[in-house]
Amino acid sequence: MTAIASPDLDQLAADYQRDGFVKVSGLLTPEEAADYRRTSHELLQRLDKADDPTWGSAATVSMGQATSLQHLHDAQFYDAAFSRLLTDPRFTQVAAAVLGTPNVQLHHTKLFVKPPENGSPFPLHQDHPFFPHTDNRVAAAIFHFDDAPDEKGCVRVVPGSHLAGPREHDSEGGFHLTDVPFEEAVPQPAKAGDVLFFSCLTVHGSGVNVSNEARTTWLVQFRDPADPPLTDAHSHSLGQGMMLAGIDPTGRRR
To answer: What is the pLDDT of residue 5?
Structure first.
């Protein structure tokens, strides 16, 4: 494991504070990413538990078919490879840097596969309304297990949008924003092994996968354990409260 040097962590933290997101290229090696891609697809096939989380507001037709999506909560409870990744210092040191605390606590994880040709998009939104916290010291990391160019429906973000704080979301068909044009979101194409970190207040979404290959990602939501949640959202998520780095000074666990 190759640690990112402290000056780079400082710059990543500064970029994150300014823009609300930062992409770390090559956090995993291409070989590691390929292994996780294979593990992810084998896990989904073995469990046959994946459901389609396509938002009603995102339902559309691509290549003559309705778009679809596969996802799985709590992959780390089905395969130890994901547990190891949660506490990998290459990940946790960046997570700590963007949160501004050495203490990093798990909120939940989701494995996503956007099928080729008609992988569902996500409308622009913030993560905040889904699991609000008092001080918004909550962030996400999207691990890319294969290449994610724009045509694969890569993540898009609105730089600096976190600075405006929580926004009003339309609750019909999933919480989404109606007052931010999709064109304002900047595509964040990624290579296998790249990890995109962003704030719970950063406006983001993704497009349709119109390519001939699946897009495979793992979403890890994490937080400062000292930031109290305002609801019990995602309390069903296995392992919520697990410390990924540092300690929980509150002793709350959830």
So the answer is: 46
- Among the residue ranges 20-24, 51-55, 222-226, 245-249, the one predicted with the least confidence is 51-55
Distances (CA, A) of 236 to 72, 74, 83, 109, 254: 13, 10, 18, 11, 11
Dihedral angle at the C-alpha atoms of 228, 176, 152, 54, nearest 10 degrees?
90
In a domain, 251, yes or no: no
Report if residue 116 sits inside a domain. yes
**Structural domains of the chain, count:** 1
Q: What is the number of residues in the chain? A: 254
pTM for the complete prediction? 0.90
Q: How far is CA 196 from CA 40, 122, 157, 252, in A?
A: 18, 16, 10, 28
Query: In sequence order, what are the beta bridge partners of 138?
Result: 223
Give the span between the Cα atoms of 168 and 93, in whole angstroms.
32
Specify if 226 maps to a domain: yes
What is the C-alpha separation between 127 and 162, in angstroms, rounded?
A: 11
Per-residue pLDDT band at 121 (split at 50, 70, 90) = confident
Domain at 108, CATH number: 2.60.120.620
Range of the domain at 61: 6-161+169-245
Neighbours of 121 (CB within 10 A): 23
- Write the single-letter amino acid at 11: Q
pLDDT digits (tens, 9 = 90+) for 18-72: 999 999 999 999 999 999 999 999 999 888 755 655 545 455 544 456 666 788 9
Q: Is the separation of the CB atoms in 218 and 142 below 8 Å?
A: yes
Angle between helices 6-19 and 89-99 (to 10 degrees): 50
Higher pLDDT residue, 93 or 233? 93
Domain-located, residue 250: no
Residue type (1 letter), 114: K
